[in-house]
Specification:
- The complex is a heterodimer of chains A (221) and B (820).
- With 221 residues, chain A is an alpha/beta fold.
- Chain A has a single domain (2-220), classed as P-loop containing nucleotide triphosphate hydrolases (Rossmann fold, 3-Layer(aba) Sandwich).
- Helix content of chain A is 34%, strand content 28%.
- Chain A is built from 7 helices and 10 strands.
- A 6-stranded mixed β-sheet of chain A has the order 6-7-8-3-9-10, with helices on both faces.
- In chain A, helix 3 (100-109) packs across helix 4 (115-128) and helix 3 runs parallel beside helix 5.
- Chain B has 3 domains: 2-47 and 272-449 and 691-819, no CATH class; 68-255, no CATH class; 467-666, no CATH class.
- In chain B, 50% of the residues lie in helices and 17% in strands.
- In chain B, the strands form 3 sheets. In chain B, strands 1, 2, 3, 4, 5, 6, 7, 8, 9, 10 and 11 form an 11-stranded mixed β-sheet that branches. In chain B, strands 14-15-20-17-19-18 form a 6-stranded mixed beta barrel.
- The chains are: A alpha/beta (221), B alpha+beta (820).
Chain lengths: 221, 820
């Protein structure tokens, strides 16, 4: 599904350059549950952004589902992201002004799905994640765990083939974190490829492969 | 379409959940749109709208001119000479103005009638909107004269009914038939309510048709022939005037030129500079509004950068984001535009109600839809462009920053801060210019108000008495009436004193004359210019005008043949500098028009010198005046001056009754306030009204500009403080005191404010020169105003910045740093 060759990401820092990712070669097959680990500043989140096509300022080759992302214009990459990728963020990143139901509807509304179909999909998702009673609440009225649950539900509502999660339990207490990780495991079993970034060995244990990053380099796999 | 409603719903929620942003944006829009629509509607209605005359640019009012700059209205014989000798004009017409008594259902009223020569309508280039023009030579048919009436008169007296055509009306002692109604805005001369052929001129006034010399209440209008330019016309008019001066030395000596005043300029008067200054001011307000809108949008975009990044991450296309933002901008624009329209309507209505006489052609001014649309479009465009910037930026590569940090402004924070700082500096600079402009006008207004009119206007009431003809045509009968009226009014409770005069100061009525001074040969040949004033002996006491030397007039002066004249201080200073004027001989021509003795010399002795009076208003230079007993040349109409002991307005009903008891046919109402009893305070208010309107409007604009600039600065400092929250927390953690943090925040605000003020002062130094014609005894670079505005702005800016600065100083370092 994912094939990275010699991917590098750097920032211009004054007269010199600072590399965040160096010569990344990585393959991820469909159905895998990969964990990216490493200390702060290792480049984990940057790698995740590149995988999710939210960052385009890198060099090297990236093939996604056989398509060369590195040659695509920004618009095409966003289109690819829209079709195949879901994102879960550490800080949930729900839209404060929208209710739970509307937050879930948002990705669907960007995919030209008919309104009545969208309503059905949202209803089904609310039911599946046990949030029917909270559908009209705003994010500020939910606990952190509940917000992340909405974040995950929103990420998978379009049934993406790849789910990218950046420290998904970083802001949650352990019981809530476990709940999310079990949810990921279920999704993975149902066929969703998952790539998560985490500091937690325990969470890494839910996946089937760990990629370690240090100072931008992959140090083992 | 299905997404449209969703966008709209989200937009409405945005509006509801962000009341401060919404209120600030809507008010900014409303203010910009409202103020600009109102002022541009005034400019359009007053200055730009064509005059209701064909090819108005070729229309000129002609006056006799005595070089270098004396001018007088032409007599009818002079007009006839001009008409026969001037070929530069395709049409010329003469208008003789008379106040007539109109007998309507509400009793006698004063109406101003223009008696016009044959080619009047052709010369002016106007035609009736209803009925027809004059036919033949205007001689009465079946005992009735033809009359054209103004639109306003038609509305007032005939209720705007079409059946007015053919109706009879009584003007003075004669019958007139309404033959046509002129369109709204047709006002030549501007005072005329009725026009009738010169053949209808009442018998007691027909003598003016044969008298040369100095006339009031007449007008000559001429239409420049196509293909003739102004210089050629001027050469021809000068040649003709020169010939007439030689042919009629007694009346025309020295009057060797003809002054050509463009009718458009005469109609607009000083409205043009006043409105242009307001236009400049309102454009500055619009710039401030747009800049404020940009600043608000940038702040909002910063706050929402995370939201946009999430939307992109969830698959929103650039077009979709733009649509969302456009719908938000549109909604704000619609609300702001609607409010602005209401503001503009209210402002125009307020100007029309509160200052109806201040601007010409104000009656027909309405809020201009095109202006509203243009202002709305301009403001909307600004809002849209700025509103769309975040959408365009959101699709750029650096999304991860926004998502990762979850804080506003990452990635391009410095650039945005620089842009916002530049906008705030711009706002402060523009506000400085407006405040300085307003400050100069306020100081001028204050200066005008401190001008001594030369008499005590408090408690004074006046009435222009218009005796019906022919009952009082005889001068003795007129004097008897005036005397009886003074006696009757004197007995009204609350009246302290009563006097009579031909023209009350500041009321707009005057009569310039020429005075021959014993032992002094005039450069111009005919004598020295002075205002012709006839008064009763009580006049100076009633007006509280001091007698500086000699004595006032007394009752004996009214009847004796040895005539006693008074002069004012300016007369004495100008013609006998350093000399005693008492006992000097003067010769003044009899100046009551249409009397057989018009122009006959009256010789008299200066018996006293009285204080100067601002006859033409507080802002106009003093004129030499010569005062004669009113009985020596009794005017055909006179003004009663009544000093009341207490509230002068309360005395008016009693005064009316007293006048009615003497003669119930005396008109005491009309279309204008001065046609009835009016207080001197009303006249002074009317004199100050244009300045008051300009000062008020410019002051409001400057106030609004100050408010907007302060809001902008407050927003920026709040934003900067929020951005530096971590830095401030670290500073506090390492020992900074509250005062240090406040100083840090205020220093930034002060720096921007001072730059803005400096730029504003430079701009004002260039721009305030353009308004020098509107200033009174204040220089366009008045240091006091410049310094005061600078201090005011700096103080207000620091106060506005203090609130976010204090908030910053209360940051809990542990909370702030943990949040990072």
């Amino acid at each position: 599904m994912i094939d990275l060759k010699n991917v590098e990401r750097m920032y211009q820092a004054g007269p010199g350059k600072t590399y965040v990712l160096r010569q990344i070669d990585m393959k991820i097959a469909q159905g895998e549950f990969v964990t990216i680990m490493g200390p702060s500043g290792a480049g984990k989140s940057t790698l995740l952004s590149i995988l999710g096509m939210l960052d385009s300022d890198w060099t090297g080759e990236y093939h996604f589902l056989g398509q060369p992302v590195h040659t695509m214009p920004s618009k095409k990459r966003i289109e690819l992201n829209k079709q195949h990728i879901g994102f879960v963020f550490q800080k949930y990143h729900l839209i404060d002004d929208l209710t739970v139901r509307e937050n879930l509807d948002l990705p669907l509304s960007y995919r030209n799905i008919k309104t009545k179909d969208r309503a059905g999909i949202v209803a089904e998702s609310l039911d599946r994640f046990g949030m029917v009673g909270k559908k009209d609440l705003y994010p500020s009225q939910l606990s952190g765990g509940q917000q992340q649950l909405v974040g995950v539900a929103r990420a998978v509502i379009t049934t993406p083939q790849l789910l990218l999660a950046d420290e998904p339990t970083g802001n949650l207490h352990s019981a809530q974190g476990e709940e999310i990780m079990e949810l990921f495991t279920r999704l993975n079993r149902q066929g969703t490829t998952i790539v998560q970034v985490t500091h937690s060995e325990r969470n890494a244990g839910y996946g089937n492969r760990i990629v370690n990053l240090r100072d931008g380099w992959i140090v083992d796999r | 379409m299905r997404d449209f409603w969703q966008d709209l719903r989200y937009t409405l929620r945005q509006v509801k959940r962000n009341p401060v942003f919404t209120a600030a944006a809507v008010l900014t829009l409303a203010l910009g749109i409202g103020a600009n629509t109102a002022v541009f509607s005034l400019v359009n209605g007053v200055l730009l709208r064509p005059l209701p005359y064909d090819d108005a640019s070729r229309l000129y009012t002609l006056l006799e001119q005595r070089p270098p700059d004396d001018a007088r209205l032409a007599s009818y014989p002079t007009f006839v000479d001009w008409q026969s000798q001037l070929h530069a004009f395709s049409y010329m017409a003469y208008v003789r103005g008379l106040t007539m008594i109109f007998r309507g259902p509400g009793g006698p009223e004063q109406v101003l009638v223009g008696y016009v020569s044959e080619d009047f309508l052709a010369a002016v280039g106007g035609r009736p909107m209803l009925g027809r023009g004059f036919q033949g030579n205007g001689e009465p048919s079946e005992g009735s004269h033809g009359a054209l009436i103004s639109y306003r008169f038609w509305q007032r007296q005939f209720g705007g009914e079409r059946s007015a055509i053919g109706r009879q009306m009584r003007l003075g002692d004669e019958s007139y038939t309404v033959v046509g109604v002129m369109p709204p805005g047709f006002a030549y001369p501007e005072w005329a309510a009725v026009w009738s052929p010169l053949a209808a001129l009442p018998a007691n006034d027909r003598a003016v048709l044969t008298q040369r010399g100095n006339h009031a209440d007449s007008r000559v209008i001429a239409r420049l022939r196509p293909g003739v330019d102004l210089a050629a016309a001027q050469a021809q008019t000068d040649a003709v005037a020169g010939r007439l001066a030689a042919a009629y030395p007694a009346d025309n000596e020295g009057w060797t030129r003809i002054q050509m005043l463009a009718v458009s300029e005469a109609v607009l008067g000083d409205a043009q500079p006043r409105l242009l200054v307001l236009t400049g001011a309102v454009v500055l307000v619009l710039l401030i509004c747009c800049s404020n809108l940009i600043n608000l949008s940038l702040a909002r975009a910063s706050a929402r950068s995370g939201e946009f990044a999430i939307r992109i991450a969830l698959g929103a296309s650039r077009r979709r984001l733009m649509r969302q933002l456009i719908s938000e901008s549109l909604l704000l624009a619609i609300i702001g535009g609607a409010l602005g329209w209401v503001l503009a309507e209210a402002a125009v209505a307020a100007v029309k109600v509160r200052a109806p006489e201040v601007l010409p052609r104000l009656e027909e001014v309405t809020v201009d839809g095109r202006v509203l649309a243009l202002t709305l479009a301009l403001t909307l465009l600004t809002g849209l462009v700025v509103g769309l910037l975040p959408a365009l930026r959101a699709t750029s590569p650096d999304l991860t920053g926004s998502l990762k940090e979850g804080t506003p402004g990452t990635g391009s924070g410095t650039r945005k801060t620089q842009l916002r700082s530049a906008l705030v500096v711009t706002q402060i600079a523009l506000a400085s210019v407006l405040l300085i402009g307003a400050g100069l006008l306020i100081k001028s207004f204050w200066r005008v108000q401190t001008v001594e009119p030369g008499f005590d206007f408090r408690g004074l009431v006046t009435l222009r008495v218009m005796p019906p003809s022919p009952r009082y045509d005889n001068p003795d009968r007129a004097v008897a009436l005036y005397s009886a009226l003074a006696d009757a009014v004197r007995s009204v409770p609350g009246v302290e004193s009563v006097a009579l005069t031909n023209h009350v100061p500041v009321t707009g009525a005057s009569l310039p004359t020429v005075v021959q001074i014993e032992g002094r040969s005039s450069d111009a040949g005919q004598g020295e210019a002075a205002l012709f004033r006839t008064v009763s002996p009580e006049y100076f006491a009633a007006m509280r005008i001091p007698v500086l030397r000699g004595r006032p007039l007394n009752q004996g002066d009214l009847t004796t043949s040895s005539q006693s004249f008074l002069i004012n201080e300016t007369f004495a200073r100008r013609y006998w500098p350093g000399d005693n004027p008492l006992g000097k001989q003067l010769t003044v021509p009899k100046s009551v028009q249409a009397r057989p003795d018009f122009g006959e010399p009256m010789e008299g002795t200066v018996v006293g010198v009285v204080g100067d009076v601002r006859h033409y208003g507080l802002e106009v230079d003093l004129e030499p005046e010569v005062y004669l007993p009113y009985t020596v040349n009794p005017p055909r109409w006179i003004s009663l001056v009544v000093r009341t002991r207490s509230n002068s307005e309360l005395a008016i009903p009693g005064l009316r009754d007293a006048v009615r008891a003497v003669d119930p046919d005396l008109p005491m109402t009309g279309a204008d306030f001065w046609m009835g009893f009016a207080t001197m305070q009303q006249y002074l208010a009317s004199d100050l009204a244009p300045r008051k309107l300009n000062t008020g409007l410019l002051g409001s604009f400057a106030g609004a500009a100050l408010l907007l600039a302060v809001i902008g600065l407050y927003g920026l400092i709040s934003y900067l403080v929020a951005q530096r929250r971590r830095e401030i927390a670290v500073r506090i953690a390492v020992g900074a005191q509250q005062a240090d943090v406040i100083r840090l925040a205020l220093a930034g605000a002060l720096r921007l404010t001072l730059i803005g003020i400096a730029v504003g002062i430079l701009g004002a130094l260039l721009l305030t020169r353009l308004m020098s014609s509107l200033l009174f005894e204040v220089a366009p670079t008045d240091p006091f105003t410049f310094v005061a505005v600078g201090l005011l702005l700096a103080t207000v800016a620091l106060l506005a910045s203090y609130i976010p600065a204090r908030r910053a100083a209360r940051v809990n370092p542990m909370v702030a740093l943990r949040a990072e």
